[in-house]
Every structure is written in structure tokens, then in C-alpha cells.
Amino acid sequence: MPIAITTLQLSQIITAVGGLGTAAFGLLEALKPFFSSINRMGLSNIQSTISALTPGQTGDGVPCDPLNAPPQKSILATIEANWVNGADLAAQKAVAKSLIKLHLSPGTAEAVAKNINVDPATLRSIAVKTLAGTPLAQAESDVFSRFDLIVTSMLDGAYQFSDQVYRNKTRALAALLAIVLALAGAWSLEGAILFSQAHWHDLALAFLVGVLATPLAPIAKDISTALATAVNTMQAVKTVLPR
Question: How far apart (Å, rounded) are the C-alpha atoms in residues 230 and 236?
Fold first, then answer.
């Protein structure tokens, strides 16, 4: 038997489903202090990029970490802290680039040059002159400018990709929570019989509501308003135009 759904009821359904999605996102936020891995989603790609740009020093009798510069371990810890705390992406990239430049030394220049495809000898000369406070030659300034642009591009790509991974995974987790909440709501109405063959349609409906909840959460109000506006517009048109 078909069920007639009025515009008001459809608007209420959309708002309710969107509210479930908002609740799922809120519950996910509440779970973050207990599951620290949620905040670290996407971080691994950033860490691998920065690790390639802050290698240890090479050479006989040379310490692994450059003098007067933070070691790679501290750099990665700073990057992780900024990511976990949700700092502005532009600020995170600026801090990362500053730390990478600070870590550059004659002992790390060759490895860095290979990872970013610039001349190792020139980059090493740049590192030596930078430490000594000596002005760079024009050719060295050009290479250093390319170094800056390449590092900026690599960091931008790493952060954008990681941000997309984080957003996709959190949406997936929120959708899973929304499905669980929808099933819990259906169970509170139907009880154990919800999982019987006779009520499979209620179970499927609860699952569908949970799946739609998170995509609808940010736009539920807009859809409801647009739907009401469209209905009012059609009613106004029908009163003016003859059939």
C-alpha cells in the first residue's frame, strides 16, 4: 500500500536524518580523547615527506643530527602536535618549511638534494655559506629559490592529501556511528523482533537512514528550505496560470 508523504513530513524527515548525522559527528568528536588514532589519521604521509627532507647527516665522525638545529625526532613531534591539535593548514606548512630549512646542513644537503632533484654540490655549498653567514652567489641563490619552491610544493601536496584522507576517514567513521545509532533507535521501537524476517524492511530502513545521515548533516536545513520554497513557488504559479 503506497504511503502519502506531505511536503511538511518530507522536510521533517530530512531535518531528522540530518540531525542524526550531526549527532554522529558529535559522538565521534567525543570519542577522540579515548581513541588518539582518530586525530592521527592521514599523518603518516606528512611524516614520510618531512622525513625525506630532514635526513640524518652522513660522513665519518659527523653526528647524526646537525648542530644548532632540531633533530628529526623533535621536528616530527612538532609536526604531529600541530596536526593532532588541528592547527591551520597554512600555519602547519609554514612551520614545517621553517624546520626543514633549519635542519639543512652540509651533512644533510646531499641526501636532501637527491630527494628533491637539485644539484647536491650546490646545495651543500649553500648550507656551508648559510652557516657561515656568507652571501650566496647568483647561481646558488637560484638553486636555493628552487629548493624553497620544491619544498613548498611537496609540503602542500602532502598536507592536502593527508587532509583529504583525514576528512574521508572521519566521515566514514561518522557514517558507521550513524548506522549504529539508527539501528539502536529502530531496536528501541521494535525490540528484538526488529531482527526477525518479518521486519527486515525496518532493519533496511534503519540502515539506509544511517547511511544518508552524514551526507545530509551539513545540508539538511538547506534542502528543507529549498523544498518548501519550491512547493510554495509551484503553488503560486498554479494559482496564476490557467490549467
Answer: 10
Question: pTM of the full predicted structure?
Answer: 0.79
Examine the domain organization and report whether 87 and 187 are in the same domain. no
Nearest to 22 by CA among 184, 167, 203, 219: 219
The whole domain housing 77 covers: 43-167
The span from the CA of 190 to the CA of 192, in Å, is 7
Give whole-number Cα distances, 63 to 67, 99, 110, in Å: 8, 18, 15
46-78 pLDDT, tens digit per residue, is 999 999 999 987 766 667 767 778 889 999 999
Do residues 107 and 156 both lie within one domain? yes
Residue 1 lies in a domain: no
**In 3-state terms, what secondary structure has residue 19?**
helix
- HSE, side-chain direction, 13 A CA sphere, residue 84: 14
181: left (phi over 0), alpha (psi -120 to 50) or beta: alpha
